[in-house]
Amino acid sequence: MDEFRIVISDAADPLLMIGLAWLAILGMLAWGAVAEAWYLVRGRQRALFVHMLERHDLTLADAVASEGYAGLVRAFDRCFNCSEQRPCRHALRWGWLGARDPKCPNAALFAHARESRDTRKTKAAT
Questions:
Q1: Pairwise CA distance, residues 90 & 33, whole Å
Q2: What is the pTM of this model?
């Protein structure tokens, strides 16, 4: 009885390489879909703007007192549409450990809210 070698695939076969490339592409797409679904399903506990307020030692009440509700809504909108959200989240997660401070479109609001809070405190103390 003759023995025949069983060849599953030839490594030099171009169709095998193309198939492996497509498999790698599909794997990356599936990984991206799973990561995005995890990000969407996990949800965000609080808005990024609230974290930035806390980083600047402010509360929502301080921001409302200095800018009003309309100014707060505009600030939330600026934060929501900001292109620096990923560096901002990175800076919030790692603190001041070498992370660059992102260019926040609400930096003027934070400075104004901090200034008005300090003036209210000095008026209340006197």
A1: 22
A2: 0.57
Say which DSSP state 11 is in. T
Token look-up 């209340």 returns 124
Three-state SS sequence of 101-118:
CCCCCCHHHHHHHHHHHH
- Using an 8 Å Cβ cutoff, are 29 and 81 in contact? no
pLDDT per residue as tens digits for the range 40-94: 777 655 678 888 888 888 998 989 998 899 999 999 999 888 888 888 888 888 7
Angle of helix 48-55 versus helix 107-125 axis, rounded to 10: 50
* DSSP designation for 46: S
Q: Cα separation of 107 and 113, whole Å?
A: 10
